[in-house]
Each structure stands twice: as C-alpha cells, then as structure tokens.
TrEMBL record, chain A:
Pfam families: SBP_bac_1. Keywords: Signal, Sugar transport, Transport. Residues 1-22 form the signal peptide. This is Multiple sugar transport system substrate-binding protein. Gene3D superfamilies: Periplasmic binding protein-like II (3.40.190.10). The lineage of its organism: Bacteria, Bacillati, Actinomycetota, Actinomycetes, Kitasatosporales.
From TrEMBL, chain B:
The lineage of its organism: Bacteria, Bacillati, Actinomycetota, Actinomycetes, Kitasatosporales. This is Multiple sugar transport system permease protein. Residues 118-330 form the ABC transmembrane type-1 domain. SUPFAM superfamilies: MetI-like. Keywords: Cell membrane, Membrane, Sugar transport, Transmembrane, Transmembrane helix, Transport. CDD domains: TM_PBP2 (cd06261). Belongs to the binding-protein-dependent transport system permease family. The chain crosses the membrane at residues 58-78, 122-143, 155-175, 203-225, 257-277, 309-329. PANTHER family: ABC TRANSPORTER PERMEASE PROTEIN, INNER MEMBRANE ABC TRANSPORTER PERMEASE PROTEIN YCJO.
Length: 420, 339
C-alpha cells in the first residue's frame, strides 16, 4: 500500500500541477485592438429582457461604429468586486466595466481605472451635478453615468386613515406626532432595517444626512458620524423603537419589503423604498392604498438615497479609443432613455426624462432632485459592518446613542488608519 | 460486540470523517495461511508471489480511489495549504501580497471581536450539542421500540436533515417572529409574551440552537438507532429476568453499550456546532449586537467584507485546529474502544 502510494505521488502531483497551470493560463487573449470587451451585470432584473437589451445595444453600436468589434459579457452581481479586482490585478480586465460610486475611490486609488472625461465630451454639462460628482475623484470623472436609481417615502393609506392621519408624515416632527395615533390604531409608524447585512445607505445614513451629518470628515480619514447630528439621528430612531413606533422586526430586517412589517401592513411608512417596492405594495395592499411621497425631511435637510450607475475604462485597456466610442454612444439621450425604460431607472441627465408609465413616476422624478449617493470612500462598505452592531446596541438599550456611535467611530478610525 | 456497533456506524457516515470508520478493509494482514483477495488459500511457499499480488492489489486499490484522491488534493488539500500560506501574508485584492509572518495571528490574539465570536461559538455549541443529541437519542429509542410504521417515522424524523438549512432558517424565523409569529401567537393564547426570540441578546443563541437541532438531529438519530439495534436482545432480556425496570435497563444496560456510538455522535455534533454560520447568516445576520456572531461569521466578514484574506485565513486555521483537536479526542476514544 505504502510503496504504491509513493509511486503514485509524483504523477499525481504533476497532474495536479498541470491542471492548475492550465486553469491559470486559460483566459481571454483578446489582444486585437479592434475589440472592445464590456463587463455588464443584470441591471435589468428579467434575464431575458436583459440579454435582449444588450444584444440590441451591441448591434446598434457596431452598425454605427464600423470596424469596432463590441463584446458585452454578462456577469453576476455576486462577488463583483472580487472578480473585478482579480481581473484588474492580473491585467486581464475588460476594456469597459459598469461601476457604482462606491467602487470608484478604491479602484482609482489603485490606478486600475482611467478618467472618462474625453468620452463624455460636451455631454458633461447635461448630467445631474450630483451624479457626476459621485463618479468623480480629484476633479476627473471615472465613470460615465448611464442610469440613476432613486428611493423615497412609501405610505400605507389604509393604516394612515385608520389612525385619522390625512397628511402623510414627511418630516421627522410629523413622524413623531403620528406615532401615538398609529399606535392607537394598532400599527407601528416607521419601518427600519437594523440587520448587519442591510446597507446603511438604505437605513441609517439617510437619517444622518437628514440631520445634516456626514459619515466621514472632509479628508475621508476620520469618522464624523458620531457628531451631534449623528447622535440626533440615532436618538430619533431609538426613541421611535422604544415606543414601538419602529417595529421590533426591524432588528433583523435587511432592507426588504415583502415578508417584513411594511409589506405585511403592520407599519404605516418606509423612507428608503424603491420604485420596485411600490409595485410590490400595489400587489400586497391594493392599488388605492399606496402613496409615494417626497424624500423625507429631517432637521438638517431633505434627502434620500439614490445613485448613478456608470461605465468606466480599465487603466490597462488596449483599446481606449474604442472604449471611449462605446461610452460616448451609451450616454446619448436615445440610449439613456432605452436603458431607463428597460431597467425601470431614472435619467442621470437633466435634459432627458425617461418615459415612465408607472403611477408614481412623477413622485420619484421629484425625489430624484433630492438624491444623495453617499460619501465616496474606499472603506465605505467595510465601515457599515462596524456601525451596524453599534446601532443595534443603541436600539436594544445596551448603550446610549452617543456611546454607541462613539464606540463605532473608534473602530472606524482604526479601520481608516489601516487603509493602504 | 462494541466493534460491531462501530462497524455499523461506519458505512452511514459518508462524510469522510477521519477516525470513525476503523481500519480500512484492505489493511487486513493476509499472512501465510490466510486468504488472498480472491478468497484462495495462500500457502507459505508462495510468499514472493503473494507480495507481488499484494502490490498489484495496492495499485488496483489506488486506481480505484484515484479520482476521489485527486479531487481531494485539488479541492481540499491544496486550498488548505493555500490558506496556511495566506495566513502568514497580507494579501490584497489585486493579488499583491507581502509576507508578514505571525502578524495575522498576533493581531488575532489581540482582537476583541475574535474572542467575542469564539465565545459565542462555544456557548452555541454547548447549547446545540445536548439539544441535538437528546433529541436524537429520544427519537432513536422511540423508533427502536416502535414496530408500527417504523420506516415511515424514521423517514419523517430524517426529513429536516435533508432540508436546506437556508429554507429551515427562514421558516424558523417566521416561527420566532414577534408579531403574529407561530410561537408568539401560541404563547399569546396562554397569556405569555410576546417574546422577542431573535431580537434579545440572551435568547438569540438558544433560539438558533433549537432551530439547528431540529434541522440536524436526524443524522445522529440514524446512527444511534443503528447502535441500539446492534445491542443483542439477550443482554436486555437477562436484565429483565434479573428484575430490572424499563428505566434501569435503559440506564444501566443500553446506555453503557451505546457509549461509543453516543460519543461519536457527540463529537460530530460538536464539530458541526463550531462550524455554524448559515443559520445565523439567514436568521439574525450575527445580531443583535453581535450576540450571534460566530467564529465562521467573523471569518466570512474578514474575508468578504473587509477583503482581509490573510487575516480570514488565519481565523480559518484556528478553526481547523479546534476541529482537529475534537477529531483527535474522538479518534483516541473510539479507537481505544474498538481494540
């Protein structure tokens, strides 16, 4: 047995090695400069519609730009950054890739992407300033916006009426005032998501911004969310939670609508709901019971979360000219319109309105003017994993809002100091 | 007799767990006067021939296990070595890395979060293992006694085990819900509650452990049932004749004879307890306030939220050591018993 194993070891090891090397060498060797590869993600939720849309874009572009071979590859959202970073790192990335504002700082800092200002050209002034700013670093634009998402308030009319509330609460004060009335009517007031897997962009940050606060200081190297505004925002939330105005189920909610208190008509309103949520609400509550309101107003300002999605260029692209041509094609009004229509998005350009036959198009279009995409920082995503548990500690009463935010800020500063 | 019990256990386990299966069938010494692989008597004069035969047999055996062995090397052994290597580096997403020696490990020892998650995991295991084994033993004894529709009940009890853990966790989340959850609605009828099972720091671990026990007891139940069935009837009969009551028979005859199987089950469940992640990921995301933040959750966050792959690998290796210690204890005790 032993000898047999020894003898087999070498060939086995060699076989393993060859398998590994083969896997390592496999990869595209698309060096022809005429070719432009694009990494796209399921931005249109229906897979068939998504495939059909990008197929059409490929044909449309190639018909216009003769001699450029466009190849749009579809990737899943899962492990998006891991795949992209590995590809960039090994010099094998696509020429063009879809990027969100929170991805740009880290890739720009690593020199993995290059500016797209030339590709945007004169369309520059047509973009929403917020959208363009979200995609910029050091005064240069790193991704050309092709769509914009939006969230806003969503109300259950039946529950409001039951509590005798005629005007949907659109400010913090109005929410505080509505809470006892709704409690009388057997409902909670405001839904929230405190799960560690919930993005803070859709839970705590909007409250922080509404209070006038910021997540990072101006240099982006220190936490700022534990300032007086942050404490005010968390106190607002904790008070509501303790009185039952924010439902207990919020503790394990991860920005979901269906099967959560809002979807099940146990709570009267949400403040970070997407147009998709409104469609679900129509199905769950009945059409007449859904109200989409303006972005929530706090003591500091009126603001909601929403961000652009855009196209960036690989710093090591072998066909920058082709990549720029493709981006220039995608930011034209016709494409912005078709993209928005297919994906249910809004326009990142002020001069283009995506035709939208949804009942709430007007309300969301209005909320779009108050969207904020979050503060760009390479550690933005990681910071959330540190803040979430502390917010939970404040909600359960284990810590005061101030103590909880200070504890999170101490950890955050450590994380930011560790950034390379 | 005890050996028979362990042998019966072996084919069921299927997970390739070290030490549980006893000596491999091919390892039996076929010396002079024994029988070779084809059942022919081997004479002393054919010593050399038998050695050649044995070598051939070994090669044939190797050929049979080669596909599995190759898979094991490529997908288990290789990555494990890779993780060990990663754990002494500062590995960046871009593929660049620097050797930092024991840096990750010293950081780990000073990281409160690591100790917190290790504590959570230990408490969870202490809750989960007794719950699971008690449930498994109870159902196994019931099944052993029942003859009526035994197959049906065995299948029924085993069903949760083959259910996806994510699905089970989602259903248990509904059961535990504060408002109108099944459990709270039932407690409400009795005038108790509502109890925030998953939102309270003290209740969250027992609640998750109970859900996991429900999901996982079927496997141990089958093993214990096999153990029970291998206990010879004469022994219990003798005890009955001696005037032992039902409980006395169970406590002083059945349980001691079941000991090795029970111990195997305890260790396997303890190892599973230490690896807990998915139930927490789905039910609480580690909350509230990290009260259900397990060691594997800490590993997951380090790797996939903080992109700190070296650090995550160090956590993985610590977990590996913990599980290894359990396996070694199990191997020692079971091995000794079988001799």
């Amino acid at each position: 047995m032993k000898t047999g194993f020894k003898r087999a070891t070498v060939p086995l090891a060699l076989l393993t090695l060859t398998t590994l090397t083969a896997a390592g060498c496999g990869g595209d060797s698309g060096a022809e400069s005429k070719k432009v590869t694009v990494w796209m993600y399921p931005v249109i939720m229906d897979p068939k519609a998504n495939a059909a849309y990008w197929d059409g874009i490929e044909k449309g572009f190639e018909a216009k730009e003769k001699g450029v071979d466009l190849s749009i590859e579809q990737l899943p959202w899962e492990n998006r950054d891991q795949k992209l970073a590995t590809a960039f790192g090994s010099g094998k990335g696509p020429d063009v890739v879809l990027l969100g504002p929170d991805q740009i700082p880290q890739y720009q800092a690593n020199g993995a992407i290059q500016p797209v200002d030339r590709a945007i050209g004169e369309a520059r002034d047509a973009f929403r300033p917020n959208a363009l700013e979200a995609m910029s670093q050091d005064g240069k634009v790193y991704a050309a916006p092709i769509y914009h998402t939006v969230t806003s308030t969503l109300y259950n009319k039946k529950l409001l009426e039951k509590a005798g509330i005629t005007e949907p609460p659109s400010t913090w004060d109005a929410i505080r005032a509505a809470a006892p009335k709704l409690k009388q009517a057997g409902a909670s007031t405001l839904d929230y998501s405190a799960s560690n897997e919930a993005s803070l962009n859709m839970s705590f940050y909007p409250l922080l911004w509404q209070a006038g606060g910021k997540v990072f200081d101006d240099g982006g190297r220190k936490a700022a969310f534990n300032g007086p505004e942050g404490v005010e925002a968390l106190t607002f939330l904790v008070d509501l939670y303790k009185s039952g105005a924010v439902p207990k189920s919020a503790m394990n909610n991860a920005n979901l609508f269906t099967d959560q208190a809002l979807g099940k008509q146990q709570v009267a309103m949400g403040y970070t709901n997407t147009p998709a949520d409104a469609v679900l609400a129509e199905k769950a509550w009945g059409k007449g019971n859904v109200i989409v309101g303006p972005a929530l107003t706090g003591p500091g300002k009126q603001v909601c979360f929403g961000m652009p999605g855009g196209l960036g260029i690989n710093a090591r692209s072998k066909n920058v000219a082709g990549a720029e041509k493709f981006i220039a094609y995608m930011v034209q009004p016709a494409q912005i319109e078709s993209m928005g229509k297919a994906g249910g998005f809004f326009s990142p350009r002020t001069d283009v309105t995506v035709p939208n036959d949804s009942t709430y198009a007007k309300e969301y279009q209005e909320a779009l003017n108050h969207t904020y995409p979050g503060e760009p920082n390479p550690a933005a995503r990681q910071l959330m994993a540190l803040i979430s548990p502390e917010i939970q500690a404040a909600l359960t009463g284990k810590k005061s809002p101030k103590a909880a935010l200070d504890a999170a800020a101490a950890e955050a500063d450590e994380l930011l100091a560790r950034q390379r | 007799m005890r050996k028979a019990a362990t042998d019966e256990v072996a084919p069921d386990e299927g997970g390739g767990l070290p030490g549980a299966s006893g000596p491999p069938p091919g390892a039996k010494d076929t010396g002079p006067g024994g029988r070779d692989g084809r059942g022919r008597p081997v004479t002393g004069a054919a010593g050399t021939r038998s050695r050649i035969m044995r070598r051939r047999e070994a090669l044939a055996g190797l050929a049979f296990v080669a596909p599995m062995l190759l898979l094991f090397i490529v997908f288990r052994f290789g990555p494990t070595l890779g993780a060990a290597f990663l754990s002494v580096t500062d590995y960046r997403l871009s593929g660049e890395w620097t050797f930092i020696g024991a840096g990750n490990y010293t950081r780990l020892l000073g990281d409160d979060l690591f100790w917190e998650s290790l504590g959570v995991t230990a408490v969870y295991t202490v809750l989960y293992v007794p719950m699971t084994v008690a449930l498994a033993l109870g159902t196994a004894v019931l099944l052993h006694r029942t003859l009526w529709m035994r197959g049906f009940f065995r299948g029924l009890f085993f069903l949760p085990y083959v259910t996806s853990i994510v699905l089970a966790a989602v259903i248990w989340k509904w059961i535990y819900e504060v408002q109108d959850g099944l459990l709270n609605a039932s407690l409400g009828v009795l005038g108790i509650g509502p109890v925030d099972f998953l939102g309270s720091e003290s209740l969250v671990l027992p609640s998750i452990a109970a859900a996991s026990a429900w999901k996982g007891f079927g496997y141990s139940m089958l093993i214990l049932l096999a153990g029970l069935q291998s206990i010879p009837r004469e022994v219990t009969e003798a005890a009955t004749i001696d005037g032992a009551s039902g409980w006395q028979r169970f406590r002083w005859v059945t349980l001691p004879l079941l000991r090795p199987v029970l111990f195997f089950v305890l260790v396997i469940e303890a190892i599973l307890g230490f690896q807990v992640f998915d139930a927490m990921y789905v039910m609480t995301a580690g909350g509230p306030v990290r009260a259900s933040y397990s060691l594997v959750y800490f590993l997951y966050d380090s790797g996939f939220k903080f992109f700190d792959f070296g650090y995550a690998s160090a956590v993985g290796l610590v977990l590996f050591l913990v599980v290894l210690v359990f396996s070694l204890i199990q191997r020692r005790l079971i091995g000794r018993d079988a001799d």
